[in-house]
Write a structure and sequence with these properties.
Length: 130
């Protein structure tokens, strides 16, 4: 069984590195994840943007085994679970949006009440006897 050994790598290539790189080496395939652009300070004190990512190196034989394992995971049952997950995420987003709208409406109501109280206070300010 293929075991991916991840290491953090930084690259200065202009384009975003591919998730699967089969072209850089004739004997090695690189699998990458968490690819992001970061600002680093170089040894001369200047700042530069580089690509930072986690990378695993596989031989061609290991990569063939890895592809077979990934293909096994892409079964209809897994795809159905992924679909359900997407539906749940969409439902959660709708709920969040609804709550945000309700909180905004409540905030507007609270502001209207406070404005009304302030107006009452101002109109009655001269009528309170001490």
């Amino acid at each position: 069984m293929v075991k991916l050994k991840w290491k953090t790598v930084q690259g200065t290539q202009e384009a975003k590195p591919a998730v699967t790189d089969t072209k850089s080496s004739p004997t090695t395939v690189y699998i990458r994840k968490n690819i992001k652009r970061v600002l680093v300070t170089q040894t001369d004190g200047k700042s530069a943007y580089v690509w930072q990512y986690e990378e695993a190196a596989l031989t061609l034989e290991e990569y063939a085994e890895y592809e077979a394992l990934v293909a096994e995971l892409e079964t209809p049952a897994i795809q159905a679970l992924q679909e359900q997950n997407y539906i749940l995420q969409a439902a959660l987003a709708d709920i969040y949006e609804s709550i945000a709208e309700q909180m905004s409406a409540q905030e507007n109501t609270n502001l209207a009440i406070l404005a009304g109280l302030a107006e009452l206070y101002e109109t009655q300010e001269g009528t309170v006897e001490e």
